[in-house]
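User: Can you predict the 3D structure for this chain?
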Amino acid sequence: MKSVVIATTTFYKSTDELRFHLACDIVRKAAAGGYKVVIVDASPAKEIADSLRAQGALIYFQQSPGMGPGRREAFSHAYEVGKHMGAEVIFWTEPEKVDLICSIPKIVKGIRATVMDIVIPRRSEASWQTWPKFQRESEKNANKRYNEIFGTDNVDVMFGPVAFSMAVAGEFISCTPQTFGVDDTYIQHYAPIIARYRYGANVVRVVEVDMTYPPMQRSEEEGAQNNAMLEKRRWQAKSLTEAYQKLAAKCEFLKREGA
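Assistant: Here is the predicted structure, written as structure tokens:
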């Protein structure tokens, strides 16, 4: 089995949150599969980190506020842990995607630690059907714009997870989207784009996987949290689409200038 370090970030206000319990589940499932889990936590309550640590995760407290800084810290810690254990791959996922753990061998197959290699998982059509309806629509639209902007085919960037070799980890650790005129947020979306620009299109591959959206999470988001989640998904799709356009324009400018 390929040696993999899982990286993620967490922020929960209390242990009552469903997402916290899903995060505990993913840590347990990953540990059972032989994977190290590195978490950068920004939760205000100490028991969040204590509980995740008790399940087997390596916990690091977030040092700089914000989404981008937290993810860079997670990638950096995962890289150091990976070097120590001789890992070949770092795998980023949101902490609630519990069902994805069983697909890691398929996702990372073929990745070699010393080769510049990035794999973006793509949801199967059966997987898509388990997502909340409003999220399916917004994410499919954002994916379509991504593929149009970058000339790619069937990249499911909105899924979120990404696997990459130790050789290309520096692209994620040092990724600062603001230097490209983009908000410092979704590093796992932007680093593969920049890597393609620097090293060529063959750096990034796509692997289709099956994953079931957590039924309890779907029920919660389509129920009491429906309005809040609708607003969040609209903002996410709009902000990311705008970011892809800015990033593409900047990369093309740099290519013309020979930077």
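The mean pLDDT is 93. The longest strand covers residues 4-10.
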